[in-house]
Amino acid sequence: MPSKPVMVNTTGYLPLNYRQSKGFVVRIPFEKLAWSTCLLPLSSFVFCVIWSLLYNFDDSTFTHCKVPNFLPSISAAIGNYRTQRFVWGTAIAVHAGPRFLFTSMYRQYYKDILSNGAQTLASVACFLNVVENVALIGLTFIPSAYNYAIHEKCFMTFMLTSELYMVLTCVLLTRYRAQPPSNVESKSLRLKYQLLAINMVSFALAGYFFIRHNLYCEPGVYSLFALCEYVVVLTNMAFHMTASWDFHGRQITIDQYGLDIS
After folding, report:
1. Most CB contacts within 10 A, which of 6, 81, 150, 163?
2. Has residue 19 got a pLDDT over 80?
3. 0.85 surpassed by pTM
C-alpha cells in the first residue's frame, strides 16, 4: 500500500494554524477573565468592610458629629488601615491590566457593531472608561489620610466618569447599533439598564444622606450614606462585569507571538 505523500512548505510562509500548533500557548475564555477581574475588587471590598467592622469599628465609623453609626464609609474601610489598604491596593493593581484590555476590546467591538456616525461617541466612552480606571488607581494609592485634596479629586473624577460611561454605553448600544444584538447581548443590555438605574438612585440618595448628616448630625445617617455608597460601587463593578456577555464565546490566546483575541 503506497504511503501518503508528505507536503513540504517551500513558500517561506508559515501555515495559518502555526500559532496554535507550536510553542507555549495559554488560552483563557473571556467569560472567566471578566468574572475573575470583577471578583478581585468585589472580594477585597467585602473583606475590607468586614475587617473594619470587626477590628476598627469605633474609629472607622467615627465622624465629626460624634454620633453613633454602624457602617464605615468606603474611604475609611479601604484607605485608613494598613491591612485593608494592602488587600484593596493589591486587588486594584492586579485588576487594572485586564480593565485596560477590556477597553481596547470594546473599542473594536464598537467599530464592528455601531454605525459610522457613532464612532466619535464610542471613542469618548472608551476614553471615559480609561480615565475612570486611572482615577480608581489614584484614589486607591493616595488615601485621604495622606493627601485629602488629591484623593478627593480622584474620587470625584472616578464618580463622574463612571456615571457618564455607563449612561453613554447604554445610549450607544440602544440607539446606534448597525446590526441586531444576539440574545446574549440583549440580556447584557437589559442588565446594564437595571444596574444604571440602581446606581443613579443610590448615588442621589448618598448625596442626600451626606448633606443631611452634615446639617443635622443624626445618629446612623452617615451609615445610610455609606450603605448607598456601597451600592454605587457594587453596581459599577457589576456593570463592567457585563462584558462577559458582550464578548460571549471569545477567548484570549497568549503565546510566543504575543496576545490574540478571537
Report:
1. 81
2. no
3. yes
